[in-house]
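From the shared-data thread, chain only:
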Amino acid sequence: MRRRRAAGGSGAGRGLRRWAAAAALVALLAGCAPREGVEEIHYRLKWLYNVSTVGDLYALEKGHFARAGLRVNVKPGGPERDALKELELGHAQFGVASADQVLRAAAKGAPLVVLAQIFQVNPLQWIYRPDKSPFREPADLRGRTVGVTFGGNDETILRALLARHGIAESELRLFSVRYDYTPFYEGRVHFWPLYINAQAPIIGERLEKAGEPIAFLDPHRWGVRFVANSVITTREMLRQHPRTVSRFLAALLEAWREALDPANEEAAVQVLLAADRETPEAIVRRQLPVTRRLMVPEPPAAFGRIDEAAWRETEEILRLQGLIERPVDVRSLFAGNLP
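Structure, as tokens:
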């Protein structure tokens, strides 16, 4: 099998005990503060500082957290900086995680709460050259070589796309991708996975300079909704310190709205450039409008809207692919539906 399932009840029990201990530690730390709430809050992001964290950084740099009476340490994420693990250990009170991470943990008994959904559309897409690999519908993937990160979300999303459109995996070739884009540049791989708001402007600029047209395969357009980043906390944090959670979330969402407002684009760009010194300014200016389209919901929905239907579909995808050991009631994860 491509993946192994968790080994039954004893593992789930250990997970519950770990999370219970972590929740107790969070409560203990919170209790040390001289007023209701945690005096210093730790907020672990999902990845390094980049355009997908602009609202988080904006909240810190523009004083939104401070005005809410909170001292927030916004910590970058990464391969060895997992928000779920830090919540479990009591090292953070809030974090950012993708829906699949939340659902996998919840299936094992983790008492997580989803406070807001940052991306309304998953930024994961596949770049391709329409002149060399014409694409009108998913059936056009037949006979093509498609890049995939085995074990990654792109593999899960691709398999869901193939299943939805009745395409057998044997009808195309899967290519294991790494950080080296050479196989795509050389034309050996026809469709390459990337984040449309992050890597796409960088790779697209290179190909455009070479006179090569580019296009993107968007799974969301073809019926696959797989929720990306959301803001999370623990049930214990919400129950013990609801005002702290409320102040944190209100300040964060206000900052996201301002950061993504075109009227504040210059300020948002400068916040990003100060935190992410590796991405050129010209690229940041191309990334930001794309990020805005992926995150800002259609009116009258407010920023941070939780798309319950998309969460249900994400849960179903994981369950059908054997990536979670038991069904998860997604509504039980949302803050407004806690008992």
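The radius of gyration is 21 Å.
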